[in-house]
Amino acid sequence: MEMRGILSLLASLYLPTLLASAHAAPVRVDADIPGENILIDSIRGDTIKVHRDLRDTEGEWFYWSFRVRGAAGRTLDVEFTKGNVIGVRGPAVSTDQGRTWRWLGAAAVEGARFRYGVPPGIDEVRFSVTIPYSESDLRAFLDRHRGNSALKMGMLAHSRKGRDIEQLLLSRLDGQAQNCVLLTARHHACESLASYSLEGMLESILGSAEDGRWFRQNVEFLVVPFMDKDGVEDGDQGKGRRPHDHNRDYAGESIYPSVKALRDLVPRWSEGRLKFALDLHCPYRRSSQKDNHEDIMFVGGSDQDRWSRVEEFSKILESVQTGPLVYRRSNNLPFGVSWNTADNVGSGLKTFDMWASEQPGVLIATTLEIPYANAGGKPVTAESARALGLDLARALSIYLQQIR
After folding, report:
1. % the chain with pLDDT above 90
2. pLDDT (tens digit, 9 = 90+) per residue, 284-329?
3. Which residues pair with 40 in a beta bridge?
4. Which of 142, 122, 89 has its CA nearest to residue 285?
5. Which of 1, 72, 197, 274 could be cross-linked to 270 through a Cys-Cys bond (beta carbons 3.0 to 4.6 Å apart)?
6. Per-residue model confidence (pLDDT) at position 17
7. Strand 47-51 vs strand 102-103: parallel, antiparallel, or unpaired?
8. What is the DSSP string of 86-150?
9. Planar angle of CA 275, 137, 287, nearest 5 degrees
C-alpha cells in the first residue's frame, strides 16, 4: 500500500477518537453533597488536582470527599497537592450516588495520587477517604424500624446552624429499667465508620432475638448518633476544631449545643441508673511506626477501677465476637500509653468519657476506636462495621446481666 493510502487508513481509524477526545466535555468536580469536602486546584482533561479543606481545623487532618460527573468511560488521575491523605486501602468509591461504597485498593494508589477508570454509562462517581455516613443514612435506618414500640425518636437540641440533632430512646421506655446506657458517636465529624458500628448495635437492641428481648425488659438506651451534626453534614474534619472540638467541650460552660444539652439531660434521664457509657470514634487513617491505628481498641481513662471493668467487658467481647473484624484485648490503649495522655486532651478541657465517668453509678465510661479502613488486616466496610456493632451489643447484654 502506498504511503498516502496508509496515512488515509490511519486517519480513518484514529481521527474520530482523537476528535472525540479533544471535544469531550470537561469533567465536573464539586463538593455540593452532604458530607463532601474538597478544594480544586485544577482540572486538565482527565487529570484532577485537589486538596482537602481544613476550614477551622487546628493543625493537619485528612478528611476529604467529593463528586465527579461527566467522566463515564474515562480514566481519571486524581492528585492531592497538599500532602498524602489517602488511606491504607486507597479511596472509597461509590457509583450509585453514595448508596454503597467499596475500597478501590492500594494498587490504584501511587504516593498522593490514585487512578480510576469510570465505568461506561456511569455519569457520577464519588470518592472519599472513608465510607461516609450522614443524616440520610440514619434516616434510612430509622425508616426501616418505624413503628417499633422499642424506639422513640426525638431531638436533643438545635445545632449552631439550626439543624435538628437527633436523640433516640430505645428498649424499655417506661422509666422503670434497672440499667441505663448512653451511646454517642461523631464527636469528630469525619469519623464515619463508627456510625456503622453504632447502627449494628441499634439493630441488635431493636431486634427480636434473645439480646433484644432482654434489653427491652431491663435497659433503657439514650443514643446521640451525631454529636457534631453540622460538621457531619458540612463535611468538616471536626477533629481539632478551633477553639476546641466537641470531644473537648465537657468542662465549664459548653460552647456546642449538643454537648450542653447532653450534660443537662443525662442526670435527669438516668436518675443514678447509668451503668455504661460508650463513645464511638475512629483513629488516624493509617498506622505509623509509633502508633497502631489499624486495630480496634478501647481507650482507657485515668481511673484504674473503671479501666479494670473495661478490661472485663473486653474479655466478654473477645469471647463472643462472630463478625469478620477481629477484636483483641491486647490492643487496648491504657491511660498514659502512646497518645492517650492528659496532654492530648489539653489543659482545662474534658472529654466525653472523662465527664461520663463522673456520673453517679456508672461502671464503665469509655471510648472505642474503630479503624477507618483496615482492622487487624481485615477490610472495614459498612457491613463489617455493623457486624462489630452486633458483637458489641451481645457483649453488653452479657456484661449487664452479670452485674445484676
Report:
1. 91
2. 999 886 788 999 999 999 989 999 999 999 999 999 999 999 999 9
3. 50
4. 89
5. 274
6. 43
7. unpaired
8. --TT--EEESSTTSS-EE--GGGEETTEEEEEPPTT--EEEEESS----HHHHHHHHHHTTT-TT
9. 70
